[in-house]
Amino acid sequence: MNASTGRRRRTVRDWIVDFTIFLLAVGFGLALAVEFPDPPHGEGSPYTAVDLPLWLSATEQVIALAACVGLWWRRRWPVELAVVLVLLSSVLTLVSGAMLIALFSLAVHRPPKVSLSVLVLAVGATSVHAIVRPDPYSPFLVDFLLGVAILGAVTGWGLTVHHRRRLVESLRDRAVHAETEARLRAEQAQHQVRESIAREIHDVLGHRLSLLSVLAGALEYRPDTPPEQVARSAKVIRESAHQALQDLREVIGVLRAPVGELPQPTMADLPQLVAEADDVGARVELSREHEEPVPDRVGRAAYRIVQEALTNARKHAPGARTRVRVAGGPGEGITVEVVNDAAAAPPDHSAAGDGAGQGLVGLAERVSLASGRLEHGPTDSGGWRLSAWLPWPS
Question: Domain of 344?
């Protein structure tokens, strides 16, 4: 590409094609310049050849050669060159070859509307040529129809090449668009996975760290705690801290790996979650009223609901009795209900952190994505109730 003019630089293929076309146009002109000895009908026939003066014949040959040379610029000025050669072909026979090539090139490089308009002009020039320079070997009508047929064939060939190139370009653009769209889709999916991982970090680590906060606070404000209880609390703190570190390692591994999923809990892990809450004195009761195994996707959502509800209960109602009920079946859905009594001690707001209230927002989003329903609010006895319904396909 030439930076100063913005035109494409000729390639080796372009030079070969242009030189071949130049020779073809010159050969076509030489073939038309051959004179046959006698008309078929003898002297006095209406089809007698018209003899041109020597100077006019020489001028026509020079113009025809210039027309062949002008084909080298047919890509830069296809319309102008085609129109000039069409007008010259109305009176000069030897430029017919260059005119046909220019007409073909015009049909290839310009819209069909332009090439068809020049074709109409060429048909008119053919009729003029048939009158001014009649063929001594064929009548006017045959000469005219043959010229129109040749013009139509050349233009039709050029239009076919033009539409084929447009089709190839369209398919190429479509392939590029599809590739770009696929890349954007992959990036969007990756972004959604990272958001999902971020939510899992909040749920998992929020639960673990709330256990640590409650146990540490109990040890701080109750220095007279029996040694057995201190040892038990220290064990839970150590195990929770270790599990939190394991969760962080798993999350970092998922973020680093090109493909991977964060290990997800299921309904089978619910008793362990309740047992951990009992270890810190939360007094949690679990009631499971379903017989068939819960699907992993539904069980994972139910586990996260219970986990977030227990975390909120420890933050805002420490020491209160909490009841967890899971009931349902295939086709009717599964109901997860967590109800805690009024707080037995004033809540420690310093342990709630700056993200207070974000857990319920995340739960609402999770339940909504699962096509379920979420309800929460205070009870008449001063406690808190959280209830969620999730679809369970039959």
Answer: 266-394
